[in-house]
Automatic annotation (TrEMBL), chain A:
Record flagged with keyword Nucleus: no
UniProt-recorded name of the protein: 3-methyl-2-oxobutanoate dehydrogenase (2-methylpropanoyl-transferring)
A GO term, aspect molecular function: oxidoreductase activity
Organism from which the protein derives: Peiella sedimenti
Annotated ranges, domain Transketolase-like pyrimidine-binding: 4-179
From TrEMBL, chain B:
Catalysed reaction equations from the record: N(6)-[(R)-lipoyl]-L-lysyl-[protein] + 3-methyl-2-oxobutanoate + H(+) = N(6)-[(R)-S(8)-2-methylpropanoyldihydrolipoyl]-L-lysyl-[protein] + CO2
Similarity comment: family membership: Belongs to the BCKDHA family.
PANTHER family noted in UniProt: 2-OXOISOVALERATE DEHYDROGENASE SUBUNIT ALPHA, MITOCHONDRIAL
Organism: Peiella sedimenti
InterPro entries per the UniProt record, alphabetical: Alpha-ketoacid_DH_E1_comp, DH_E1, Oxoisoval_DH_suAlpha_N_dom, THDP-binding
Required co-factors: thiamine diphosphate
Function: The branched-chain alpha-keto dehydrogenase complex catalyzes the overall conversion of alpha-keto acids to acyl-CoA and CO(2). It contains multiple copies of three enzymatic components: branched-chain alpha-keto acid decarboxylase (E1), lipoamide acyltransferase (E2) and lipoamide dehydrogenase (E3).
Protein name per UniProt: 2-oxoisovalerate dehydrogenase subunit alpha
EC number: 1.2.4.4
Length: 337, 410
């Protein structure tokens, strides 16, 4: 089985779908001939032709709207927002239109679009290349939100998203494109090569939306994370020397509530980790759900480790970014609580 | 830096007339019927830029069809256009009254603009996809859409085709080439371009059409639509219905004093036509030109349909607070129904008796539909099952929707 990094796995997903379904096409800023600034759409134009993978004007609202129109027609467009930080001009089209068209038309018009976007911090991208805006989309009825943490899932979840009949916002943690970044920014970086989750089959396979992945089985505390924070949480568990259970949520909507509840009922403790700012972040929703479903099993207050309620700071990235030390401290508090 | 300059001052555009003023449209040059040349459908956009500053008119003041844009419709086509427009106006009047009677929460008329959707509904086929605003009810009515179904939507009753989910008049019907209306203005414009791109991508023969008001041309979506339409040569007809008013804001607030709305297309390299929107024949001919161009794979055309919003914006609006009450009586391009009626009479294909009979027939049709819809129920008397509230959010509901529906107990 070929070993792929996350970029290659995403590219392989697009390749697999474009090969089998002529209604799948891809476009975005620099996403055509050049293959995207992160190379996710590399060689697709050369392989499938100009109209299947092409460059778009720098107009995110226009890209989203054109994709919506195509999806309404019956295609399965995969559009790229060059950075999640650039998605806001498309927000009205995604939130008021893509998300609502099935409902407001009584089920007659549908929007099977996939909105891909490189996302998250840890790459010295500063304010406009580091944000994690997932909660702006999880709050919207009618959208699905997917955030993979490894090459195998990235491919399987992207294929499932393309095949899904509803609009999917697909965030790609760019810090994970080349390796399972554990948050120790001052230590050598490990690449995906040789990692079991970098063994990516050729061809089509789908990972179901709404199913979490158990990354580490443990008895003492449940760590809920997604994207880059999955690897930070694993590193933090090791750093804290605690037998933690680490759950990679993989899709925030639909959410695998059963996996969360089962784990927290077992451990009685819960630490939630995400990069996005704390206030109204997805961790608030997770915290509320755990409290609603597991209150009588909780032995300590629920902990949240998140980005701060500041804009993403360039020079203070590693103070902002929830690293293994901060997560380990939260684990310890949860264990003592 | 020179010190003796006049201080800067901010300009905020104002309309010529406000309530109490005598209506004055002397600044509008409507030209002459038949005076504007008709370029070949294959003309380059650069060669026809002057079209954006002229007004295509076919019907003259005596009701005669003039010049190269005469679409040469048959008497049957003309009579259908006239009776469709009468039916739209009758329906509007009835539903406006229904609001006053408490039968619905909201209504929007298209009085004075009937020629636009009634003509274009015939030029485009229902296999094409229309991305309308809330003032193109004529598309549905001219295609024979059941009036009772429209009323069921307006009443949000148990038979509402879109299950009570939208504000009245936000119709949706795929089979009639009528895309679900959005209350967020302008969003449909670039979506229509995407739909047209998909049709071209598939090698299909269908085209898209979109409508937007003069006010919403200021939205980014308008400019995104023109950029994408030009870049990808999308087979779409982009209509701007310039009815002079966006609720209380005159067209100058959208930039209409600086240039014509049609001329916005020039900067994008798109062909543009500016048309008397109250002239059924001119609307038909210009639309036919643009549709033919799109079907020939020559891409998009922008059409400014120059008209006047005779009624209030909606039942929530009172135009007497911001414009002269009798402004429409002075509109230099008249009333679309009267003008087509005059034309048919001049041709010897219509008379006052037939007109009166057509009006009576429209009232009867609307009355019958009203009876049918009201038997199901007006607003509050009847509505879809509450459990449908949780349907169609996604193709399949996730656990949240299932549990929340249980919480409601339905």
């Amino acid at each position: 089985m070929p070993s792929m990094n996350m970029i290659q796995a995403l590219n392989s997903a697009l390749d697999a779908k474009m090969a089998e379904d002529p209604n799948v096409l891809s476009f975005g800023e620099d996403a055509g001939y050049f293959g995207g600034v992160f190379r996710v759409t590399d060689q697709l134009q050369q392989k499938y032709g100009l109209t299947r993978s092409f460059d778009a004007p720098i107009a995110e609202g226009g890209i989203a709207a054109a994709g919506i129109g195509m999806a309404v027609y019956g295609l399965r467009p995969v559009i790229e927002m060059q950075f999640a930080d650039y998605i806001y001009p498309a927000y009205d089209q995604i939130v008021s239109e893509a998300a609502k068209i099935r409902y407001r038309s009584g089920g007659e018009f549908t929007v099977p679009i996939t909105i891909r976007s490189p996302y998250g911090g840890g790459i010295f991208g500063g304010q406009t290349h580091s944000q994690s805006p997932e909660s702006l989309f999880t709050h919207i009825a009618g959208l699905k939100v997917v955030i993979p943490s490894n090459p195998y899932d990235a491919k399987g979840l992207l294929i499932a998203s393309i095949e899904d009949d509803d609009p999917v916002v697909f965030f790609e943690p760019k810090r994970l494109y080349n390796g399972p970044f554990d948050g120790w920014h001052d230590r050598p970086v490990s690449p995906w090569a040789g990692h079991p989750l970098a063994d990516v089959p050729e061809g089509r396979y789908a990972e179901p939306l709404g199913k979490a992945r158990l990354m580490r089985e443990g008895a003492d505390v449940t760590l809920l994370a997604y994207g880059t924070m999955v690897w930070v949480s694993l590193a933090a568990a090791e750093h804290a020397g605690v037998d933690a259970e680490v759950i990679d949520l993989r899709t925030l909507v639909p959410l695998d509530i059963d996996a969360i509840v089962e784990s927290v009922k077992k451990t009685g403790r819960c630490v939630i980790v995400h990069e996005a700012p704390r206030t109204s972040g997805f961790g608030a929703e997770l915290s509320a759900l755990v409290q609603e479903h597991c209150f009588h099993h909780l032995e300590a207050p629920i902990e949240r480790v998140t980005g701060w309620d500041t804009p993403y700071p360039h020079a203070f990235e590693w103070e902002y970014f929830p690293g293994p030390k901060r997560v380990a401290e939260a684990i310890k508090r949860a264990m003592e609580g | 830096m020179k010190k003796n300059r006049t201080p800067l001052s901010l300009r905020v555009p104002e309309p010529v007339c406000r309530p109490g003023d005598k209506p004055d449209f002397s600044s509008i040059d409507v030209g002459q019927a038949g005076a504007v040349a008709r370029p070949d459908v294959t003309a380059t956009p650069a060669s026809m830029r002057d079209m954006a500053f002229q007004l295509i008119r076919v019907l003259d003041d005596e009701g005669r069809a003039q010049g190269p844009w005469d679409p040469k419709l048959t008497p049957d086509q003309l009579r259908k256009g006239l009776t469709d427009m009468i039916l739209v106006r009758t329906f509007d009047d009835r539903m406006h009254r229904a609001h006053r009677q408490g039968k619905t929460s909201f209504y929007m008329k298209c009085t004075g603009e009937e020629a636009i959707a009634c003509a274009q509904g015939q030029v485009f086929s229902r296999e094409d996809m229309g991305f309308p605003t809330y003032r193109q009810q004529g598309l549905l009515i001219s295609r024979g859409y059941p009036l009772a179904a429209m009323m069921n939507q307006i009443y949000s009753n148990a038979a509402d085709p879109i299950k009570g989910r939208q504000l009245p008049i936000m119709y949706s019907d795929k089979a009639y080439g009528f895309f679900t209306i959005s209350g967020n203005l302008g969003t449909q414009y670039p979506q229509a371009v995407g739909w047209a791109m998909a049709s071209a991508y598939k090698g299909d023969d269908k085209i898209a059409a979109a409508w937007i008001g003069d006010g919403a041309t200021a939205e980014g979506d308008f400019h995104n639509a023109l950029t994408f339409a030009a870049v990808y040569r999308a087979p779409v007809v982009l209509n701007i219905v310039n009815n002079q008013w966006a609720i209380s804001s005159f067209m100058g607030i959208a930039g209409g004093l600086e240039t014509t709305f049609a001329s916005k297309a020039i900067g994008y390299g798109l062909p543009s036509l500016r048309v008397d929107g109250n002239d059924f024949l001119a609307v038909w001919a210009a639309t036919e030109w643009a549709a033919e161009r799109a079907r020939s794979n020559l891409g998009a055309t922008v059409i400014e349909l120059f008209t006047y919003r005779a009624a209030q914006h909606s039942t929530s609006d009172d135009p007497s607070r911001y414009r002269p009450g009798d402004e429409y009586d002075h509109w230099p391009l008249g009333d679309p129904i009267q003008r087509l009626k005059q034309h048919l009479i001049a041709l010897g294909e219509w008379d006052e008796e037939r007109h009166a009979a057509a009006e009576k027939d429209a009232v009867e049709q609307v009355r019958a539909a009203g009876k049918e819809a009201e038997a199901i129920g007006t607003i509050g008397q009847s509505r879809p099952s509450v459990k449908t509230m949780f349907e169609d959010v996604y193709k399949e509901p996730d656990w949240r929707l299932i549990r929340q529906r249980q919480e409601v107990g339905v």
